[in-house]
Design a protein that fits this description.
Layout: E1 3-9, H1 12-22, E2 27-34, E3 44-45, H2 53-63, E4 67-70, H3 73-78, H4 80-86, E5 90-92, H5 96-103, H6 105-114, E6 122-125, H7 128-136, E7 142-146, E8 155-158, H8 161-172, E9 184-187, E10 193-201, E11 206-208, E12 213-214, E13 217-219, E14 223-226, E15 231-234, H9 241-261, E16 268-276, E17 282-288, H10 296-302, H11 307-315, E18 330-337, E19 352-353, E20 361-365, E21 368-370, E22 376-378, E23 382-390, H12 393-404, E24 407-408, H13 420-423
Parallel strand pairs: 1-2, 1-4, 2-3, 4-5
Antiparallel strand pairs: 6-9, 7-8, 7-9, 10-11, 10-16, 12-15, 13-14, 15-18, 16-17, 18-23, 19-24, 20-23, 21-22
Length: 427
């Protein structure tokens, strides 16, 4: 059976999702809203706002779309998946209720505590007095998070009490994150090795995609400000079957059971940001309810199955019937960002590809656009994810950086150490 597929979103993650669908035997037509210049090379792109449920439902009905994959979190929080399901369209992504796991840090931490999912101690605060009390109970480094969606800029790890109070004040009094910062979650710092688990579920069965590790800080050696992600690789060498089973038993299965107990239907992605402590115990840092960026750009290229077939089965409640493949290769992705990201940066800068085809590499567009003359220019902070795919992590890394050196735009910034820790044998 063939089906028309729509992917919602326009970043590097969505480019990778569209690319994965383009290789599927079950896809008859491939569409994207709003897409980007890279996506437009393999799918028909449509203008529109994925966070406007009525607009997206009307577009998908007009095009005869049978399956929608929601890429970003904002459309899920706004209820786009609910509107599509009301039209009889299959959707990969939870409804508004399930999206609260990402849309509200307070909701998600309370969900974890309620259902016995291992996580750090936390306090929910809505004024500076409660923030002060919560911080005084803890020691540095201090973890301060905005409750709502903040485009990856709502989490702060701070070295001093005064810095932590200043961030709380800027969120509550100065509204630097708008409504997202009206409630603040302050939690214990957890030391260890951070990793990402991307799992898909139809609400009954859960399956884990190849493991990955993101690099959040802007600069080499994990220095600088937190970002949406400066690179990733997949699979992670030290994530073995024993650890995967532990994650499934202690985090993923309890999450599914908790959703059922709370009466929340859930078909979509469970993104678990996990800290593996030095003693091997787990602590769940956060949920997301969609694929990660830039993790998707390295996970999907090494997923050795028909992605469209898997997603269609998931949306139909038949995920248990799918034979689950293991990754046979390794992918490493380097994010090329605008100079100044994640703070102020310029856009509209010409992008030059001096070499369009290096075997074993992909370039996924994120912050790109076409100017009035049809030239490819930068349009965001994270501009491209350059991916190398090979049999080993070292080979994938070499390919990725070789391709990075073939791309240029003024003030381009990227990290030079993606994957280095694992290559040096460190966790």
């Amino acid at each position: 059976m063939k089906i028309k597929v729509m992917v919602l979103g326009g970043g590097g993650r969505e480019h990778a999702i569209v690319h994965a669908f383009s290789k599927s035997d079950i896809v008859s037509e491939l569409h994207c809203c709003p897409g980007n210049p890279g996506i437009a090379q393999i799918a028909e792109c449509h203008p529109g706002n994925p966070s406007n449920p009525g607009e997206i439902a009307a577009l998908c009905k007009r095009l005869g779309i049978g399956l929608v994959f929601v890429g970003p979190e904002a459309p899920l929080v706004s209820g786009t998946a609910d509107a599509l399901r009301d039209c009889g369209i299959l959707v990969m992504g939870p409804g508004k209720l399930g999206a609260q796991l990402e849309g509200s840090k307070a909701f998600s931490k309370q969900f974890m505590a309620r259902h016995g999912i291992p996580t750090s101690s936390f306090s929910c605060c809505s004024d500076l007095i409660s923030c002060r009390n919560a911080l005084e109970k803890r020691s540095a480094p201090y973890v301060v998070k905005a409750d709502g969606l903040a485009a990856g800029k709502g989490a702060f790890i701070l070295d001093t009490f005064d810095e932590a109070m200043d961030v709380c004040g800027r969120m509550l009094d100065d509204s630097i994150l708008g409504e997202a910062g009206r409630t603040i979650v302050i939690e214990d710092f957890v030391a260890g090795q951070e990793m990402t688990v991307l799992a898909i579920t139809d609400g009954e069965t859960v399956r884990i995609l190849p493991s990955s590790q993101d690099h959040k800080r802007a600069l080499d050696n994990d220095k600088g400000n937190n970002t949406g992600g400066m690179g990733a690789y997949s699979p992670v060498p030290w994530v073995d079957e024993k650890l995967t089973a532990k994650i499934t038993d202690e985090i993923l299965i309890p999450t599914l059971e908790g959703l059922k107990k709370d009466g929340i239907p859930f078909c979509g992605v469970i993104y678990a940001g996990i800290m593996v402590k030095p003693d091997g115990e787990l602590s769940l840092l956060e949920y997301n309810v969609r694929l990660g960026d830039p993790e998707t750009q390295v996970v999907l290229p090494v997923f050795d199955g028909d992605f469209g077939e898997v997603i269609l089965a998931c949306c139909r409640g038949d995920l248990a019937k799918i034979k689950w493949p293991s990754a046979k290769q390794v992918a490493l992705g380097v994010v090329m960002a605008s100079g100044g990201y994640p703070d102020k940066y310029a856009t509209g800068i010409n992008i030059d590809f001096s070499c369009e085809n290096i075997p074993g590499t992909y370039i996924y567009h994120a912050g790109t656009a076409l100017d009035a003359d049809g030239n490819l220019v930068t349009s965001g902070g994270r501009v491209l994810t350059v991916v190398g795919i090979a049999d080993t992590l070292q080979e994938a890394r070499d390919l990725a950086y070789k391709r990075v050196r073939s791309v240029s735009f003024r003030n381009a910034h990227y990290r030079n150490d993606i994957g280095d820790k694992s290559l040096k044998g460190a966790k």
